[in-house]
Design brief:
This protein folds into two domains: 139 residues, no CATH class; 111 residues, Band 7 domain (Tetrahydropterin Synthase, Chain A). Helices cover 61% and strands 11% of the residues. It contains twelve helices and four strands, in the order αααααααβαββαααβα.
């Protein structure tokens, strides 16, 4: 038995060695598969100082996250210098969380980079919140850098080319304005959109022209209208900041006041005619009543005249009335 112990030990070592070789081959195959699937992405991140491990890439696949999108977004952040800053620190976990929430990770990173280049305060949390709110955060940052021009009124929304305003003297002015705005990132979430800006500016222009005594004053100095409207603070509680309001075109329309006065005069004339016709009809009716009254009175007179012979005959019969004969005349 003692003599067989070295043989048994040798057989045990061979079995362990075989098991170890199988385990090594198994892990080597797994490593090669992982290297085949994620090696290119991992090497790209490694060379770019993105610090994304191979096991993180595997975890992304298990969590149904597009690893290439996350790695490329982090590479953009690192290479642009915003990923290493404490106030805009961008980690792989935060990028994955935003991706799983349905956000557009590349847009968010590009927006942060653009804001950093333009010296605009925008961190990852605010950019992610804007993106998840349904706003295009990259377009918002670009509008903050390069202001946007909005037509007032907008023909695509209202199908009108001009605003119609009436001065106090009754003359209509047709105005077309251009509003230059830039995005207010602090109020982008929950702030009013372009439609509100267009409506407020249009209301302000109409009110300013309506408070002017003469339309010629507006024609001479159109900038007084834009200054008055701009001073109203129309961008409050909106997602934009109004930079300027410019009157692009102004035309004279019809004289609404004169037309209203003419319509009023015609209406007054119709009323006067109606009243005169009413008085004529009343006079005609009164005339007919008087004629009828005259006829009745004539009938009464005729009845009275017919009673005279009867009364005289009755008086003769009763002796109350005699015929006096004239005395004979002398010879």
């Amino acid at each position: 038995m003692v003599e067989q112990l070295p043989i048994l030990l040798a057989q045990g070592d061979v079995a362990l060695m075989i098991i170890g070789v199988f385990i090594f081959i198994f892990f080597a195959i797994i490593f090669l598969i992982l290297l085949w699937l994620y090696g290119g992405i991992w090497f790209q991140g490694y060379m770019s100082n993105a610090n994304v491990s191979l096991w993180s890439l595997v975890g992304m696949s298990l969590r149904q996250v597009n690893a290439r999108v996350i790695v490329q977004a982090k590479i953009m952040a690192i290479q642009s210098g915003v990923g290493a800053e404490p106030e805009t620190g961008i980690t792989t976990r935060r990028l994955e969380a935003h991706y799983l929430a349905g956000g557009n990770v590349p847009h968010v990173i590009r927006a942060i980079i653009a804001a950093n280049r333009a010296d605009i305060d925008l961190d990852f949390d605010r950019a992610a919140a804007i993106d998840l709110a349904g706003r295009d955060v990259l377009e918002a940052v670009q509008t903050s850098v390069y202001p946007k021009v909005i037509n007032c009124p907008d023909p695509q929304r209202s199908q009108k080319n001009t605003l119609s305003a009436i001065a106090r003297n009754g003359v209509e002015l047709k105005v077309r304005a251009r509003v230059t705005v830039r995005t207010n990132l602090e109020q982008l979430i929950g702030g009013a959109t372009e439609e509100t800006i267009i409506a407020r500016v249009g209301e302000g222009i109409i009110t300013s022209i309506g408070s002017t005594d003469n339309h010629l004053a507006v024609m001479e100095n159109p900038d007084r209208i834009s200054k008055a409207v701009l001073a109203r603070g129309l961008d409050a509680q909106t997602a934009f900041e109004i930079v300027s309001i410019d009157i692009a075109d102004i035309d004279v329309g019809e004289n609404i006041g004169a037309r209203l006065q003419t319509d009023q005069a015609e209406a007054d004339m119709r009323v006067a005619r109606a009243k005169a016709e009413e008085r004529r009809a009343l006079a005609s009716a009164r005339e007919q009543e008087m004629k009828a009254e005259v006829g009745r009175n004539r009938a009464k007179v005729m009845l009275a005249e017919a009673d005279i012979p009867i009364a005289m005959a009755t008086a003769f019969r009763e002796g109350n009335m005699q015929i006096l004969r004239a005395p004979p005349k002398g010879p």
